[in-house]
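Subject: Sanity check before I submit

Could someone independently write out the structure tokens for this chain? I want to compare against mine line by line before I put it in a report. The sequence has 174 residues.
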Amino acid sequence: MTELPQRDATPPAAPERMTRPRLASRALRLYRWILDAIVTALVVVMILTLLGALAGIILDFATAARLFSSALIDHKLAHGVIYASDRELVIDVLSVFVLIELFRTFTDYLEFHRVRLRVLSEVGIAFILREIFIGLYDHTVDWPQILALAALLAVLVSTRIATVRFPAPSESSD
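---
Independent answer below. Compare away.
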């Protein structure tokens, strides 16, 4: 006689309830996905902003060239005309450099899922240098402002040097 395999007397397991660690893991994955979506949207906005800034630079350059050529033709080459048009061009170019550094912050976040202090200090350095250059170019900055901006610049450069010299343990392979 052949024996039939015996069945296990335990009832089939009910669908397992989601445990707290699994729920937390899913919530964190959803959170990261939402953050990535937001930062990706910001990257798209930054690309559009950079393209707009580039178009502004091109328009400012065309305006400066037109003013310069009309001043040459009329023999009215006034320093004020060239200074006004050059000023806008210089400010726009410096602003683009700050936008590029800020753009690097967003792309760095997408790559490493964190904002690194080194990149933030570089953004701050670019922004402070922009302000110093514009103030010096306009002759509107006085010595207490220059000293304050220089002190802030020194702190940011020291931070940048420290982040390169003493990287975080997880950054040593970057």
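---
OP: Matches mine. For the report I'm noting this point. Residues 23-171 form one domain.
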